[in-house]
Amino acid sequence: MDRGTERAADERPGPDQGAVADPGGYRERAARLPGAVVWVKRAPGGPAPAPQRVLPDGCTDLLWWGGRLTVAGPDTSAYTPAVRPGEISVGLRFAPGEGPAVFGVPAHVLRDQRVPLEELWPRDLVDRLTGTVAGTDSPGRVLEEIAVHRLREAAGPADPARNAIAAALGRGRAVAEVARDVGVGERQLHRRCLEAFGYGPKMLARVLRLVRALELARGGMPYADVAARAGYADQAHLAREVKALAGAPLGVIVPPR
Where is the composition biased (Basic and acidic residues) (predicted)? Predict the structure, then answer.
């Protein structure tokens, strides 16, 4: 479930559980769907595992967690799941804006939620899928198959402009400029962002900027340079945004090297 923590090496070939090499390990690999990844997370062992923050990233996930298929919606702040020591979770994280076409509901319906899949899809279908996932040693691959099949059967395509919207907002373009480039008014852009990403365009820009900043910081870039490169006014602005969205200081989320 660790959608916002440091990216580790790709999942190794073979069963999805094999991607986790040690307690607290996290692995991911590219999925069959463009921009999506399959990830595997093992909670630390011991009597009281440390909290594992899930940071906002604009994405929606299909999870195999605790023997149940669950949907994780786009978060607006850090989420701390309750996990058992050594528990393994597997997820398929979709590219920003892709989730609604898979799950059949606007992204804002799932915002800041963890929803059992049977609340979105027919119960008998989810029961069959749950049995299939439970009976395999590669749940991540089954999650991919579920999503690929669902997209083939989807009633309609995802917003074709979603990638351009996300890319432009992620680069720091003004909302009015993005709306003009897409050929819509700001109000319609806001509605389309809510449906595709779960956020309005300003919140989406903040989340995508955070994702970019954390990627740079994890790569070893000094915080001041991160702030400048990611589009913050200064390092203090970066620190405030990390604290607001991630729920902890930048030095906790990405300790300095």
Answer: 1-14
Question: Is-contact 39 27, C-beta < 8 A?
Answer: yes
Any idea what the CATH number is for the domain that residue 211 is in? 1.10.10.60
Report the C-alpha gap between 255 and 257 in whole angstroms. Answer: 6
Q: Model pTM?
A: 0.86
Q: Are residues 170 and 72 located together in one domain of the fold?
A: no
Shared-domain flag, residues 127 and 192: no
Q: What is the pLDDT along the chain (257 residues), one digit of tens a residue?
A: 445 433 333 333 344 443 434 345 889 999 999 999 999 998 877 666 566 789 999 999 999 999 999 999 999 999 988 888 888 999 999 999 999 999 999 999 999 999 999 999 999 999 999 999 999 999 999 999 999 999 988 756 667 889 999 999 998 899 999 999 999 999 999 999 999 999 999 999 999 999 999 999 999 999 999 999 999 999 999 999 999 999 999 999 998 77
